């Protein structure tokens, strides 16, 4: 498939107005606190031609190599360039050359504005489904802002993301998902796809696709109801849409369910935007200074990724305790006297 031609067709349908196709949360609420003042260093044309409202940049980017997929005119690319610092690197990939040219136009100016002696940004005309110009195991963080659901081949997209990530690397992105599968006739409608709606995955299909690409434990950090016009809702009746920020970690330490090894973590409170807690996902916050029993997937994040800098970990995986929530297939057997289910307690306490 000619991915570049596909994305250019989408761009032609979207037109020049970035607000007409932005489906992520309002920028004032989602730009990280540490990145918000850095917006003043980004040229006005870049910001005014950027096709997203939110900002998908995780914490702890200093010194990282970041890959920004479908970077558009480069707003998040240049924010990331400041967050990684002069020792880090940012690769912005954009299939629509007219948008990429805006980012390229200001490259030297942005580097001077940041006070960098050498550019730490590379801008590449390409598509997320073919990242052959990026070596295996070379990227710390991949970000995407409202563009994953535009992909015509999401399986290949995720496969490429996993290939380029280092062990412990993170795919951190925001996009639109649904509560059911969109009928094929609507899903193939290029106009609806260009509006970031028809390409949205059913959330359980996304989970299955993630697991198939060895991202065994997708975590959903923040969710918002996706705004639809009356006309759009009429075209897509009974389908609920949500905009979700998702974290996928590449590590062999994760499993497809939460299993316990008796490990604990304690958040140190050292992230500037999170002095009181660490947001692991929409259901789990780790209070600063509190020791919490965790499943192996959470301890794997601490052991394998850059987030280990902000946690203390106890445990070594020498003892396997089993299913964090209690394996009821085993424990409902006659005469079993072990841990009962969670309604009757006691049960293994866990963050999960």
Keyword list:
352 residues, Rossmann fold, Ribosomal Protein L9, domain 1, 2 domains, eight-stranded mixed β-sheet, three-stranded antiparallel β-sheet, 13 helices, 15 strands, 28% helix, disordered C terminus, Arsenite_MeTrfase-like, methyltransferase
Overview of this protein structure:
By secondary structure, the protein is an alpha/beta fold. It has 13 helices and 15 strands. Strands 1, 2, 3, 4, 5, 6, 7 and 8 form an 8-stranded mixed beta sheet that branches. The protein has a 3-stranded antiparallel beta sheet with strand order 13-10-14. A two-stranded antiparallel sheet has the order 9-15. Residues 346-350 have low confidence and may be disordered. Helices cover 28% and strands 23% of the residues. The chain has helices at 3-14, 27-30, 44-48, 75-84, 97-105, 107-114, 154-164, 184-187, 190-194, 203-212, 230-235, 296-304, 328-331; strands at 65-69, 89-94, 121-125, 139-145, 165-178, 201-202, 219-225, 241-249, 259-260, 263-267, 277-281, 284-287, 291-294, 311-314, 322-323. It starts with a helix and ends in a 21-residue tail after the last helix. The radius of gyration is 21 Å and the shape is globular.
The shape is globular
CATH topology of the largest domain: Rossmann fold
pLDDT average, as an integer? 91
Question: Which CATH-level-2 architecture of the largest domain?
Answer: 3-Layer(aba) Sandwich
CATH class of the largest domain: Alpha Beta
Helix content: 25-40%
Class by SSE composition: alpha/beta
- Tally of DSSP helical segments: 13
The major pleated sheet works out as: 8 strands, mixed
Radius of gyration: 21 Å
Q: Give the CATH superfamily of the largest domain.
A: Vaccinia Virus protein VP39
The N- to C-terminal Cα distance equals: 41 Å
Order of helices and strands: HHHEHEHHEEHEHHEHEHEEEEEEHEEH
Portion of residues in beta strands equals: 15-25%
- Uncertain spans: 346-350
Tally of domains: 2
Q: Strand tally, please?
A: 15
EC number: 2.1.1.137
Protein name: Arsenite methyltransferase
GO molecular function: methyltransferase activity
Family: Belongs to the methyltransferase superfamily. Arsenite methyltransferase family.
